[in-house]
Amino acid sequence: MKKNNGYELTKADFKQINKRSLFGFQMGWNYERMQGSGYLYTILPQLRKIYGDGTPELKEAMKTHNQFFNTSNFFNTIITGIDLAVEGKEGVDSLDTVAGIKTGLMGPFAAIGDSLFAALVPTIMGAIAATMAAQGNPIGLFLWLAVNIAICVFRWKQLHFAYKTGTKLVSEMQGQLNALTDAATLLGVFIVGALIASMINIQVPLVAHLGKVSLSVQSNIDMILPRLVPAAVVGLVYWLLGKKGMTSTKVIFIVIIFAVALSAIGVLGKI
Amino acid sequence: MEFSIVQILLLTAYSMYNIYDELQMNSSLSQPVWAGMISGLIMGDMKTGLVIGAALQLTVLGVGTFGGASKIDANSGTVLATAFSIGTGMKAATAIAAIGVPVAALLTSFDILARFANTYFQHKVDKDIENFNYKGIERHSIMGVLPWTLSRGIPVFLALALGQGVVKTMVTYLNGDLQWLNTGLQTAGATLPAVGFAILLHYLPVKKHIAYLILGFTITALLSTLFTSVQTLGTGLGAANKAFTTTFNSLPMLAIALIGGAFAILEYKRSMAKLNSAPAASSNNSSDDEDEEDEIEDANGEVSGDEEE
């Protein structure tokens, strides 16, 4: 049986882990253990180097890394880096610690990763790409592609960084990440405000006839505040989404039904 | 216009790649706007694709994949809406609500199916571990690619291969007796982005940043009214007098994003100043810290990277 006296990851190791993470990490996603098998797949060659093929230690490590795991696929290699830094130094004795680190970190990183990369980047870049695309201009799409390729580079680099810094990383970065998330959400909220004012192209085509005077409802609304109708609709939908048992899909269909009905009686129309 | 075999196969292949990209690289090629443009190109009408993709993109703005939940599949919805809109002459604005959204909702169940199917491979991996079958572990872990891609490929292929007749009948009715429904669906398509924005507001800390919501809305409402009025004026003048050739563009969204970006930078600096004034941060300034700073700047550059372009 091979006694473990420390294994340092090489450049080739980093490359291999990154490749597997970027191209295969979530393929095994399943309801039972989510990214469980994906995590093991990503670091399997390195585990074999740390513990040696065919050893009971390797089997124990493989089992540990095949358990339930789910985090942001933008930050998963940060956890991998910290994990391998600990495991490479202390071997099989560290497996309990490592399992703890993994469970402890996957929640926070899922939250930060989702708010930055699943919500904010698609909101900001999606808004820019979609407003341009609505006029038939594809430039915004390429802008988005460029930004996401830059993010991929960042994902590629974080593994080495996390491996070097180890467990210290999380506590030290916490404050900066919070500041960053705060600023990013501010931008997100601002953009949503701008989108409400520019991308919901509906109006009230109703014209009231009072004797000889005909009164356009929309131009009266515009005098109060332009784009008041879209703002009111967003407010209504926001309220609807807060109701119990409401899902986004249900709300989408409710909006379709109401829009068709209101359009049929002439209260709502496309600009 | 009938779909050719090549078009059907290309659209199917793209929708299979869609889910793979979304799960792995996340290059943005798996976003509805891109789905619209690519299927538009395959069908020979990029502009229709872009318009449909843009509308569905805005509808699902706030619907991320949080904690591995299945989300409405706007990509496949865009692919089919674009293909059928161009293929059968249905108006793009109608296709969004009539095809895009129902398809997107329907395909959620295929997503769930794929996630279930992968449990089978997870158990294969368990067995491989017992047998030290390293190749098996790797194979069974990435074989999940099959349920994933087929969950999009099969329904998109079937819809394209068999759906044309149904959609054509639909178009005939929508342009005839059911004109009111046609108009209604277009209005619905125009209203749908409101859902995307409202979902986002639920997810973002809107109470904390309410001032910026108001700023973003008001600045844009005023400026877009102004820009639109000037454009209308310009078009009118051009029509009245041929010598007037100046054209006015519409309000550029990038400029609005820049204003927001400036507010975000101010907020970031404010939070960091608060952090640095705390006693703990000032103690050790090793080289590690410098590295950290770089990474953070990287991340910052990407989140608000749109400003520099």
TrEMBL record, chain A:
The entry's keywords: Membrane, Transmembrane, Transmembrane helix
Keyword Nucleotide-binding: no
Pfam families linked to this entry: EIID-AGA (PF03613)
RNA-binding as UniProt keyword: no
GO terms under cellular component: plasma membrane
Origin superkingdom: Bacteria
Transmembrane parts of this sequence: 109-133, 139-156, 177-204, 224-242, 251-269
Gene Ontology biological-process annotations: phosphoenolpyruvate-dependent sugar phosphotransferase system
InterPro entries documented for this protein: GatZ_KbaZ_carbometab, PTS_IID_man
Protein name (database record): PTS system mannose/fructose/sorbose family transporter subunit IID
TrEMBL record, chain B:
Keyword Iron on entry: no
Record bears the keyword Nucleotide-binding: no
Region (Disordered) residue spans: 277-309
Pfam families per UniProt: EII-Sor
Domain of life of the native organism: Bacteria
Bilayer topology term: Multi-pass membrane protein
Transmembrane segments: 50-72, 92-114, 145-163, 183-203, 210-230, 250-268
Acidic residues bias (residue ranges): 287-309
Segments of skewed composition (Low complexity): 277-286
Keyword terms of this UniProt record: Cell membrane, Membrane, Phosphotransferase system, Sugar transport, Transmembrane, Transmembrane helix, Transport
InterPro entries found in the cross-reference section: GatZ_KbaZ_carbometab, PTS_IIC_man
Main location group: membrane
Location in or out of the cell: Cell membrane
Cellular component GO terms held in the UniProt record: plasma membrane
Gene Ontology terms describing biological process: phosphoenolpyruvate-dependent sugar phosphotransferase system
Entries under PANTHER family matching the protein: N-ACETYLGALACTOSAMINE PERMEASE II COMPONENT-RELATED (PTHR32502), PHOSPHOTRANSFERASE SYSTEM SUGAR-SPECIFIC EIIC COMPONENT (PTHR32502:SF28)
Protein name: PTS sugar transporter subunit IIC
